């Protein structure tokens, strides 16, 4: 056995904000957090669709403290409205779990004109983290947890064509967005260490887990490949509950520290209980992380944790 839900300490009195919380890894993480007494804010694009998720949590944990708030990470206006409303209600946030994401979809744009995968997976969470920073800084030991992917290993930051305007590949774009998740995590950690050392920045990935993430792209394209992903989920993938354990460990393990990266300990990090894992050299590139940060500030208009000098 390894780290499991049984290892999660009592979370009574702690506030967790989880994006993309109504299905998959996000929902399974919320199930565990609610069971340990956390005060949960489920940030979902559709509050209506989140109702069944809340009902499932409350059936398992009748005393669960759960609220749903609408958040569309593909809209800076939605992100700002969410943050403003949340800060008015909850001036203290213990853990922000940046979980929501999309994978390998046809080229589409966010409300603000960003390529959808980079815009949702990275830029939306970059802006949200900055806008909630004051609430995280109000807690003695707060955490930001970014859910990345093994796909970061195929990622390359194409700063000359960040939005894929000249050439777009759905998988290259996904890899870039997941590499951005790690570059952001590690750069955030470096900046927090100097300005808000009480906040830790930690990353994780779920391995190969059975969720609806894989089906979105094929559904949009009306492609037969959706059947392959569905079959793979049944035959090869671990459960979403197992896939959520790296997120839970990153968010709750007292020994987790800024800069840590958690993933499954099994073969090729596809399955298994969570452990510390390594990332590519590209994910630790300080120059690329700095450039990504500066570009993210310019694109989102959310400026925080400026680099000294």
Task: Label this structure with key terms.
single chain; about 300 residues; alpha/beta; 11 helices; 8 strands; about 40% helix; globular
Instruction: Let me know the average pLDDT.
Output: 92
What helical percentage do the residues reach? 40-55%
Shape: globular
Contiguous runs where pLDDT drops below 50 for at least 5 residues: 224-235
What is the succession of H and E elements? EHEHEHEHHEHEHHHHEEH
Rounded to an integer, what's the Rg over CA atoms?
18 Å
Main sheet: strand order: 3-2-1-4-5-6-7-8
Largest sheet properties: 8 strands, mixed
Q: Provide the β-strand percentage band.
A: 5-15%
Query: What is the total tally of β strands?
Result: 8
Layout: helices, strands, pairs:
Elements: E1 15-19, H1 24-35, E2 39-44, H2 51-60, E3 65-70, H3 76-89, E4 95-98, H4 116-131, H5 133-137, E5 142-147, H6 170-195, E6 199-204, H7 213-221, H8 225-235, H9 240-243, H10 245-252, E7 261-264, E8 274-276, H11 286-300
Parallel strand pairs: 1-2, 1-4, 2-3, 4-5, 5-6, 6-7
Antiparallel strand pairs: 7-8
Helix pairs in contact: 1-2, 3-4, 4-6, 4-11, 6-11, 7-8
Could you describe the 3D structure shown?
The structure is a single chain. With 309 residues, the protein is an alpha/beta fold. It has 11 helices and 8 strands. It has helices at 24-35, 51-60, 76-89, 116-131, 133-137, 170-195, 213-221, 225-235, 240-243, 245-252, 286-300, and strands at 15-19, 39-44, 65-70, 95-98, 142-147, 199-204, 261-264, 274-276. An 8-stranded mixed beta sheet has the order 3-2-1-4-5-6-7-8, with helices on both faces. The model is unreliable at 224-235 (pLDDT under 50).
């Amino acid at each position: 056995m390894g780290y499991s839900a049984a290892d999660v300490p009592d979370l009574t009195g702690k506030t967790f904000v989880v994006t993309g919380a109504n299905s998959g890894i996000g929902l399974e993480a919320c199930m565990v957090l609610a069971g340990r007494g956390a005060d949960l804010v489920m940030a979902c694009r559709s509050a209506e669709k989140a109702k069944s998720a809340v009902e499932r949590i409350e059936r398992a944990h009748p005393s669960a403290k759960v609220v749903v708030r609408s958040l569309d990470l593909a809209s800076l206006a939605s992100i700002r409205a969410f943050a403003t409303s949340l800060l008015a209600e909850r001036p203290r946030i213990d853990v922000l779990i940046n979980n929501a994401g999309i994978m390998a979809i046809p080229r589409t744009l966010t409300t603000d004109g960003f390529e959808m995968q980079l815009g949702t997976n990275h830029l939306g969470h970059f802006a949200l983290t900055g806008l909630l920073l004051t609430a995280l800084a109000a807690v003695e030991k707060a955490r930001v947890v970014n859910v990345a992917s093994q796909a970061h290993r195929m990622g390359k930051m194409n700063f000359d064509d960040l939005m894929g305007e000249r050439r777009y590949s759905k998988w290259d774009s996904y890899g870039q967005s997941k590499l951005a998740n790690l570059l952001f995590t590690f750069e955030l950690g470096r900046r927090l260490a100097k300005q808000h050392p009480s906040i830790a920045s930690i990353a994780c990935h779920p391995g190969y887990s059975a969720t609806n993430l894989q089906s979105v792209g094929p559904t949009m394209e009306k492609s037969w490949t959706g059947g392959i992903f569905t079959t793979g989920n049944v035959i090869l993938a671990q459960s979403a509950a197992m896939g959520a354990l790296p997120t839970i460990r990153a968010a709750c393990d007292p020994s987790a520290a800024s800069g840590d990266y958690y993933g499954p300990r099994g073969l090729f990090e596809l399955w298994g209980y969570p452990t510390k894992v390594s990332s590519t050299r590209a994910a630790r590139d300080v120059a690329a992380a700095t450039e990504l940060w500066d570009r993210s500030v310019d694109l989102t208009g959310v400026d925080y944790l400026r680099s000294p000098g």
